[in-house]
Design goal:
The complex is a heterotetramer, with 2 copies of chain A (about 250 residues) and 2 copies of chain B (about 425 residues).
Chain A (H helix, E strand, L loop, with lengths): L6 E7 L8 H7 L6 E5 L10 H12 L9 H4 L7 E4 L10 H12 L4 E2 L3 H4 L4 H10 L5 E5 L4 H9 L4 E5 L12 H12 L4 E4 L5 H10 L3 E4 L1 H30 L3
Helix pairs in contact in A: 9-10
Chain B lengths: L6 E3 L18 H4 L6 H8 L2 H7 L5 E3 L2 H9 L6 E3 L1 H7 L5 E7 L10 H13 L4 E6 L3 H13 L2 E7 H6 L1 H9 L3 E5 L5 H9 L7 H13 L4 E3 L6 H17 L6 E5 L4 H15 L8 E7 L4 H4 L1 E6 L8 E6 L21 H8 L3 E6 L1 H15 L7 H14 L4 E7 L7 H6 L8
Parallel strand pairs in B: 4-14, 5-6, 5-8, 6-7, 9-10, 9-14, 10-13
Antiparallel strand pairs in B: 1-2, 3-4, 11-12
The chains are: A alpha/beta (about 250), B alpha/beta (about 425).
The structure holds pyridoxal-5'-phosphate (2 copies).
C-alpha cells in the first residue's frame, strides 16, 4: 500500500493523553488526517523535543510503555492507516527487532520508524529493511536536516514507504532554519520517494509551503498536543483540519 | 592566484554515517532552572543564520559577500608555504616535503577570525549590539574583539582565569579594541559565582566560561553568543582554510595534520580533503592526523558519548569524544587546547578511523616549536606547535617521497611568556 | 590583483637637488681609534650589495628573485584598506575618504621585514654567518631575527635598555627565533661599557645601540651589520610599500601620511608618489606629511646639518635634520621613533618643503590609536599611531572630498603594555 | 679647448708633497697624463677621502693654502693642460666666486671644479656657469654616484668642459659598487658631454673598463699619492703610465 499524495498526518504518543482517551482523541481527528503516526511510549525519548517528551512521560506514568501500547488499538481500531515510531534502543534486547516488527505488523501498522537507527545503529540499516519486509512491513527511514547525501540516496534505493525528514533539531522546537531549502535539497536526492516532513510544523501556511517545496506529506505532533492541552479535542481537531486543508490545497495549486 | 572561496564546505553532507544530533538532557524537567529545552534555547543564544548553517542539507554554503569582503581585508587567502628550512633542520631535506598553511597571517594571529567575522555579522543581522563569548589563550576572544570592532558591536569576553593572568597581552589587546574582558569564573554570572564559592582558586575552564558567556547573553537584550569552535557551522566556516589549501597545494599530501582544541582548525584544514576522499575524488591514501595536548587528550583517551558542550549544561548535549564536561585540565600554555570535548563530526571521523589522534606533552611540543621557529622564522602558537610536533614525528620516520601538509593555525608572538617558561627562547641554536 | 613589484624605487635619481654625500668626520685622524675612514669602514660593516644599492645612479633597482619570493612568503603585497569604520568614528563619513596601507600584515607585524630580508640575504651572499643590529621597541630586531631564521644566519640584537625591559614579549620572541639579545648599553662592547660607566642608569638610545652593534661586527669574523632605517638603500627597499600602494589606491590622495623614526616607512610609502610628483607625472596637489614624536621632533625642531648617524661616530656623518647624536630621548612607548635624526633624503625633502612635519605627544597619539582600534579592529603600533593622529587632525579640518592615505607601518599587538599604561585599553567606547 | 678623448688625468693637491717638490712631481708624470687636476689646499677637504685629506693637511701645514698655491705654478708652468679643484666654501667670502675664477683663469686653468657646489650651493649653479664664462673658463661639474638624473641632464645642457663622476663615496676609498653600471647610466644621461670618472681608481684594468663602459676619461689621485709615498716619484710615474696606456689602449679597442 502507498500513502496518499499529498498526505497529512498527526503524530501522537500512543497512550496519551491517557490509556482511556487515546483512541478517542485519534478518532476525533480521523476526518482530517490521511494517516497517523503513533509513538510507542518510552522512558528515553532521546531525540524528541519537550512537548513530545512530556507525552511519553504521561503515557509511561499511566502504565503504558512500549509494545503494550498497541493493545489500545485492539479496542476497535482506527479508520485511517498508521505507522509506528519507536526507539530501537528499547527493543534490541527484548523482544528484539524482529519481535518489534512482527508485533507492529500484527497491530496493522504500515511501518515502524526508528529515529535512533541512523545515528546509533547505522550498521543495522539493511537488517532493519530485511526484517521489515519479512514481517510484511515496508521500511520507513528517518533523516535529519544535517544528513549525509549518500544516506538519502541509499534510503531512496531501498524503496521505503516514506523518508521522514526532521526539519528541526527536535520535535516541537522551532529554530530559524531555512526548512524549505532543505526540503528542496532532500527532494533532489530522494527522487520519487515519498517524502514526509515534520518537526515543529504548527501553521497551515508552513505546511503548504513545505508541500510546494517538494514534500509529499506533512506530519504535525507537538502543535496538536499543545492544542489538545490548551483547548481540548475540539481545538486539536480544528488545527489538524486547517493544516490538512492547507496541505491538500497546496498540492492542488491553491 | 588563488581567490577567497565563494562557498564554505559542510562535511556533514558527505559523512559515511549520519551525524548524531545535538539533544536536550533527558532530565531537563528535573533541572528546573526554567530555561526549558536547550535546543529551543539556542534561538535566544546563537545568531539565527548560524543556526540555519548548523542545520542545513547543503554541501556548499555561500559565503555572504560582506563576509568575503572582510576575509579579503583580513588578508585571505592566507599563504601556503613550503617548509624548506624546517625540512633541513629536521634532516629530511630531499626525502620529505613539508607544506604548511599559515593562518597566523590573519590580523589576530590565528584562524579564529574566519568564524568570528561571519558570526558577528550574523549577530548584527539579528539586531544584536553585543556579542559575548569565552576564550582560553585569548586567540578567540581577540578575533571576536576585532570582528566586533570592524562591525561596530561591543564584545564581552569571559577569559579562563589562568589565561586572564598569563596572557595579559591578549587581554589588553582585546580591551584596546573596546572589549570588556572578565576572568572566568567571574562574579558577573551565577555560574561563575557558584564555581568561585566551590573553589576560590578555580583556574577556569572553557566549558565553564561558555556557560558564563551564555548566561550573560540570556540575561540581557540584543545580545548574541558567538561560538569559538565545536559547532558544525564553526568548522564549516573554517573550511576556507582547506578550500584555499586545495588550490594551493602542488601535490596531494600523504599526511594532513592539525592541532585540536575544539576541532575547528583541524576540521577547517582537512574537511575539504576528507570530503574528496569520502566522495572518491582524491586523497585516497592521505592520512589525517589530529595533534592534541596530553593535558586534554579527548580524542586519544576520551569516551565517545553524549556529553555537555558546556559545564553548566546551558547548551544541548553533543555526542563526542569527551573527558567529561566538568574536567578541569591543567593550566598548560596551549590554553586553546584545554577543551574537554571535540567537535561531533571530528569525533565521528575519529571513531570511524578516518582521523587519527596523537597527544603530546607540553615539553615535547616546545622542542618542536623551537626547531620550527629557528628554521622557518615563524613562531608557532603553543596550540599550533602541537601540529608541528606531530609533523616532526611523522617526518622523521617517513619513507622517501613522503609529503606532509599541516595547518599552522596561529603565531605565538603573543605567547612569548609561554616560550620563555618552556625554555624555548635563548639557549643554543 | 597586485603582484609584488619587480623593482624598488630610488628617489635619489629624481631629487630636485643633489643629495649631500655621507662623509668622514674631518677630525678622524685626531679620533685615533684606529678605525680610519668611516666611509672606508663601511665595507667591513655593511653587506656589499647594500653598499652598491646605496651608491647607484639607477632609478629602479631590480629586486633579487629570492627576495621577491621571500616577500611573497611573508604576505606581500600587503592590503590597502579603506578606513570606513574610522571615517564614521571621526564623523567625516561621506566627506573625507581615508585609506591605509597595512604593513602590520607582515609576520613581524611591521614594515621592517621589507629591508631585513634583502639585507640578511646580502650578508649571506658575503659569506656572513651572523648579522648584528640595534633595536628600539624590537620591531626591527624581530624582523632581523625572522629574516635570519629564514635564511639560516644568527642574529645578534642590541636592544635599547628601556625597551629591553618594557618590550619583553618582543625580546623573547627574538630569542625564540634563535637571536641573542643584549640590552644596550651592554657590557659586550667598549662603547656600551663606557656609557654604563658614565651613567649606570642609561636607558639606551638607538644611536648608541648602533655603535654597539657595529663594534660587535668589527670585532669578529663573518659578521655584517644590518641597518633598520636612515640609509637610502633601506628607504629604497621600503618602496615596495608605496609601489604597491600606487597600484592599489583607487584615487590620488590629497594627503599621504606616515610616521617617522629614521624615515624608512615614510620614505617607503611616499617616495614612489613624490617621485611621480617630481617627474611631473601626477600627485601634483598631494601633500606629504611626516608624523613624529614630540619626544624626538627632529624634522620639526632639529637642525639641518652634518651629524653622526650613531653616537660613537663609527658610521660616517650624514647631512640631516638632527637633535644631535648624543640626544637621549625620553623613554616613550613608541621606541621606534626615538632616533635623533632622519634619513638624508627625507631631511632634504623636508628642507625643500616637499614634506611637512608634525610632532605629537604620547597622550594625543594614544587617543587616536584608541579611536582607530575600536573602529577598524586593528591596533596600531605606538609608532604608527602617530600617523593615525596626524590623519585625525587633517581629516577633522579637511574640506569635502578630501582623500587621505596613510601608512599603518605596524600593529601593536605586542605593545599592549604601552596601551595599558596610556589608558587606551578599557574604559568607555 | 677640448680635452683629449680618451683622456687620463692625475689629481694632486697643489703644494703636496711640499711647496718645493710639487711642480717637480707633476712634471715627472707629464708624459703619461693628458691633463692634470690640481686641488687648491684647504683645511676642510670635506668630501675627500683620507689619502687626499692628508695631502691637503700636508700642504696647509707647509704654509700653502687656497689660491696661494697657484704661485707654485708660476715657476715655469706645466707641459699639459690642467683644471683646478676647490671647495667653494673657502672662497665665498674672500675673494668670492668671481675672484676665485679670475685667478684660476690667470693661472692658466681650464676650469674650476667645485665639488661642494651641487650639494651645498645648488642654487649657485647658473651663477657659477656665468662667472666661469665671464672669466674665460669653461664650467666643470661634479656628480656623485647617487645623483639626480635631472641634474646630469642640466649639466649636459650647460656645455661643460667635463662632468666629473665621483665613482665612490669619497676619493681613494673603494667600496663594492658596480661603478661600470653607473658609468653606463651616466653616459646615457649626459649624451655627448665629456665624462671624466674618478675616485679610488688604482688599477689599469679598472680604468680600461671604465672607458669601455662609456667614460671619456679617468682620473687617479689617491693611488698615485700612495705610490709616491711608498715608492717615490718613480713608482708614481710607473703607475700613472700603466693606467695611461690602459686608457688609451681601451679606447683603441685593445
Ligand atoms: C592558534 C590556535 N590554534 C588552535 C586552537 C584550537 O582550537 P580549534 O581546535 O577549534 O582549532 C586555538 C584555540 O584557541 C588556537 O588559538
Ligand atoms: C611600526 C614602526 N613604525 C615606524 C617605525 C619608525 O621607523 P621608520 O621611520 O624607519 O619607519 C618603527 C621603528 O621601529 C616601527 O617599528
Amino acid at each position: 500500500m502507498e500513502l496518499s499524495r499529498p498526505g497529512f498526518s498527526v503524530y501522537l504518543t500512543l497512550g496519551y493523553p491517557g490509556p482511556a482517551e487515546a483512541l478517542e482523541v485519534l478518532r476525533s481527528l480521523e476526518a482530517c488526517v490521511d494517516f497517523y503516526e503513533l509513538g510507542l511510549p518510552t522512558r528515553r525519548p532521546k531525540y524528541d523535543g519537550p512537548t513530545v517528551r512530556a507525552t511519553h512521560r504521561r503515557a509511561v506514568e499511566a502504565g503504558v510503555e512500549g509494545l503494550e501500547a498497541l493493545r489500545l488499538l485492539e479496542r476497535g481500531g482506527l479508520g485511517k492507516p498508521f505507522t509506528l515510531m519507536a526507539y530501537l534502543e528499547d527493543y534490541l534486547e527484548r523482544p528484539g527487532l524482529r519481535g518489534l516488527l512482527e508485533e507492529a505488523a500484527a497491530a496493522g501498522a504500515l511501518c515502524v520508524l526508528l529515529p535512533d537507527l541512523p545515528f546509533d545503529y547505522p550498521e543495522m540499516l539493511e537488517w532493519y529493511v530485511d526484517e521489515s519486509l519479512r514481517a510484511g512491513l515496508r521500511p520507513c527511514f528517518f533523516a535529519s536536516s544535517r544528513f549525509p547525501h549518500g544516506w538519502l540516496l541509499r534510503y531512496a534505493a531501498l524503496r521505503p514507504l516514506y523518508i521522514y525528514l526532521g526539519l528541526q533539531p527536535a520535535t516541537g522546537v522551532e529554530l530559524p532554519i531555512a526548512v524549505e531549502r532543505n526540503v528542496r535539497l532532500a527532494r533532489r536526492l530522494v527522487g520519487g520517494s515519498y517524502l514526509l516532513t515534520g518537526f515543529a510544523v504548527r501553521r497551515p501556511e508552513t505546511a503548504a509551503a513545505l508541500i510546494r517545496a517538494g514534500a509529499d506529506a506533512v506530519v504535525v505532533g507537538s502543535a496538536v498536543i499543545r492544542a489538545l492541552e490548551e483547548g481540548g479535542v475540539g481545538e486539536a481537531r480544528r488545527l489538524a483540519c486547517s493544516i490538512y486543508e492547507a496541505v491538500h490545497g497546496a498540492a492542488a495549486g491553491v | 592566484m588563488v581567490d577567497v572561496p565563494r562557498y564554505w564546505y559542510n562535511i556533514v553532507a558527505d559523512l559515511p554515517v549520519p551525524l548524531p544530533p545535538l539533544v536536550d538532557p533527558l532530565d531537563d524537567e528535573a533541572a528546573g532552572d526554567g530555561l526549558g529545552s536547550r535546543i529551543g534555547l539556542l534561538v535566544r543564544i546563537l545568531p539565527s543564520r548560524l543556526i540555519d548553517e548548523e542545520y542545513t542539507l547543503s554541501r556548499l554554503l555561500p559565503i555572504p559577500e560582506p563576509v568575503r569582503e572582510a576575509y579579503r581585508r583580513a588578508g585571505r587567502p592566507t599563504p601556503l608555504l613550503r617548509a624548506e628550512g624546517f625540512e633541513r633542520a629536521l634532516g629530511v631535506s630531499g626525502r620529505v616535503r613539508i607544506y604548511y598553511k599559515y593562518e597566523g597571517a590573519l590580523p589576530t594571529g590565528s584562524h579564529k577570525l574566519n568564524t568570528a567575522i561571519p558570526q558577528v555579522y550574523y549577530a548584527k543581522l539579528d539586531g544584536a549590539v553585543e556579542v559575548a563569548t569565552e576564550t582560553g589563550a585569548g586567540q578567540w576572544g581577540l578575533a571576536v574583539s576585532i570582528a566586533a570592532a570592524m562591525l561596530g558591536l561591543k564584545a564581552v569576553v569571559f577569559m579562563t582565569r589562568s589565561s586572564y593572568r598569563s596572557k595579559k597581552a591578549r587581554r589588553i589587546a582585546m580591551e584596546t579594541l573596546g572589549a570588556t574582558v572578565y576572568p572566568s569564573p567571574s562574579e558577573v554570572t551565577e555560574a561563575g559565582r557558584r564555581a568561585l564559592r566551590e573553589n576560590p582558586g578555580h583556574p577556569g575552564s572553557l566549558g565553564l566560561a561558555i556557560t558564563e558567556a551564555i548566561e550573560y547573553v540570556l540575561s540581557g537584550e540584543r545580545r548574541r553568543y558567538v561560538a569559538g569552535s565545536v559547532l558544525e557551522s564553526v568548522l564549516t566556516h573554517q573550511t576556507v582554510i582547506g578550500l584555499e589549501a586545495l588550490e594551493q597545494l602542488p601535490e596531494e599530501p600523504d599526511y594532513m595534520v592539525a592541532c585540536v582544541g575544539g576541532g575547528s582548525n583541524m576540521g577547517g584544514f582537512t574537511y575539504p580533503a576528507i570530503g574528496m576522499k569520502l566522495r572518491g575524488e582524491g586523497f585516497e591514501r592521505t592520512r589525517f592526523v589530529a595533534a592534541e595536548s596530553a593535558a586534554a587528550p579527548r580524542l586519544s583517551r576520551g569516551e565517545y558519548r553524549y556529553d555537555g558542550l558546556d559545564t553548566g549544561l546551558v547548551l544541548p548535549l553533543a555526542r563526542m569524544y569527551s573527558l567529561g564536561k566538568d574536567y578541569v585540565p591543567p593550566a598548560i600554555h596551549a590554553a586553546g587546547l584545554r577543551y574537554h570535548g571535540a567537535a561531533p563530526s571530528l569525533s565521528l571521523l575519529r571513531r570511524l578511523g578516518l582521523v587519527e589522534a596523537r597527544a603530546y606533552s607540553q615539553e615535547e611540543v616546545a622542542e618542536a616549536a623551537r626547531l620550527f621557529a629557528r628554521s622557518e622564522g615563524l613562531i608557532p602558537a603553543p596550540e599550533s606547535a602541537h601540529a608541528v610536533r606531530a609533523v616532526v614525528d611523522i617526518a622523521r620516520r617517513a619513507p622517501e617521497g613522503t609529503v606532509i601538509a599541516f595547518n599552522l593555525s596561529g603565531h605565538g608572538l603573543m605567547d612569548t611568556d609561554a616560550y620563555e617558561k618552556l625554555g624555548v627562547a635563548g639557549g643554543g641554536s
